């Protein structure tokens, strides 16, 4: 809609419609192919001869569309713009109808019904303002998107939650005698019990849960971010046992081995500091520092 002389190139990636996430309508096609067809349809509705091409790029999403020429004369631009407005309005109406699929309604029929109720012609005021207001009520997201993956939470808050959850898992297990750290006997190292995310959340205070709910993924994301301490599998939280972790591959290229060695032990070992039995691994094989003197 920029101008009649405008051309375009688009490389579809994430599945979005005009008003939110794209909702699938054809189960016989893959989600990617169906979305590509939708993007091509948008180009056609806008009056372009749409060409499809596959890019030579290392990506699974490499099908692009090019619009270099129009299917109508410049004098017909106002009519095509009205056609575009109707198309956008129909997509908006159908987007609202998708929620009814949960109760077994046929989406296509329901959308058709809603579109008929709304009227095939756009309201007069909408037609008049089509040149300035393309999508009334649309709210774009902020230019600077807030990081909400728990990475921006205060470090003290994260450390406190990690310690509380770890102690909860450790105390849920039967008490075991401390291991002989000097002799390296770790058979009695306390691995703790596994608890569901719901059970863990029940033991956290209301203020903590409120902070976590404002982040994407909440408690689960925070625990997964702290993978040195926790392992989250099938909705259950475990204390990570580094003795069971696979050793690094010995077939790495020399450059990668050298880089790994230089980056070795850049963080303190949480288990060495906080676990009642210390770390389950000897210092020489633990990927984390057993004391500040080992940090690089």
From TrEMBL:
* Keyword annotations of the record: Cytoplasm, Metal-binding, Methyltransferase, S-adenosyl-L-methionine, Transferase, tRNA processing, Zinc, Zinc-finger
Q: What is its main location?
A: cytoplasm
What are the BP-aspect GO terms? tRNA methylation
Residues in C3H1-type zinc fingers run 263-293
Q: Where in the cell is it found?
A: Cytoplasm
Instruction: Output a single Gene Ontology CC term carried by this record.
Output: cytoplasm
Which reaction equations make up its catalytic activity? Answer: uridine(44) in tRNA(Ser) + S-adenosyl-L-methionine = 2'-O-methyluridine(44) in tRNA(Ser) + S-adenosyl-L-homocysteine + H(+)
Record carries keyword Nuclease: no
Q: What does this protein do?
A: Adenosyl-L-methionine (AdoMet)-dependent tRNA (uracil-O(2)-)-methyltransferase.
Q: What is this protein called?
A: tRNA (uracil-O(2)-)-methyltransferase
Originating species: Sylvia borin (Garden warbler)
Q: Lineage from the top down?
A: Eukaryota, Metazoa, Chordata, Craniata, Vertebrata
Q: Which gene encodes it?
A: Trmt44
């Amino acid at each position: 809609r920029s101008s009649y002389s405008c051309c375009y190139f688009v490389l579809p990636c994430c599945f979005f419609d005009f008003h939110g996430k794209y909702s699938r309508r054809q189960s016989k096609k893959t989600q990617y192919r169906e979305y590509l067809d939708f993007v091509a349809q948008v180009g056609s509705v806008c009056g372009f001869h749409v060409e499809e091409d596959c890019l030579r790029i290392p990506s699974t999403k490499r099908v692009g569309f090019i619009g270099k020429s129009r299917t109508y004369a410049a004098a017909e631009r106002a009519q095509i713009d009205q056609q575009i407005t109707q198309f956008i309005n129909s997509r908006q109406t159908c987007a609202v109808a998708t929620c009814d699929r949960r109760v077994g309604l046929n989406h296509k029929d329901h959308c058709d019904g809603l579109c008929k109720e709304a009227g095939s012609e756009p309201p007069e005021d909408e037609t008049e303002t089509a040149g300035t207001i393309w999508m009334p009520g649309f709210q774009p997201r902020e230019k600077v998107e807030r990081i909400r993956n728990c990475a921006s939470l205060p470090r003290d808050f994260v450390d406190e939650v990690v310690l509380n959850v770890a102690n909860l898992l450790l105390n849920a297990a039967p008490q075991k005698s401390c291991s002989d750290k000097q002799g390296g006997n770790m058979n009695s190292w306390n691995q703790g019990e596994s608890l569901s995310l719901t059970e863990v959340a029940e033991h956290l205070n209301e203020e903590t849960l409120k902070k976590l709910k404002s982040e994407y993924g909440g408690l689960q994301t925070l625990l997964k971010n702290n993978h040195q301490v926790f392992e989250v599998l099938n909705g259950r939280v475990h204390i990570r046992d580094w003795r069971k972790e696979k050793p690094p591959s010995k077939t790495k290229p020399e450059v990668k081995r050298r880089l790994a060695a230089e980056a070795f032990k850049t963080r303190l070992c949480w288990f060495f500091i906080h676990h009642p039995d210390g770390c389950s691994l000897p210092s020489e094989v633990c990927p984390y520092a057993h004391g500040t003197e080992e940090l690089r």
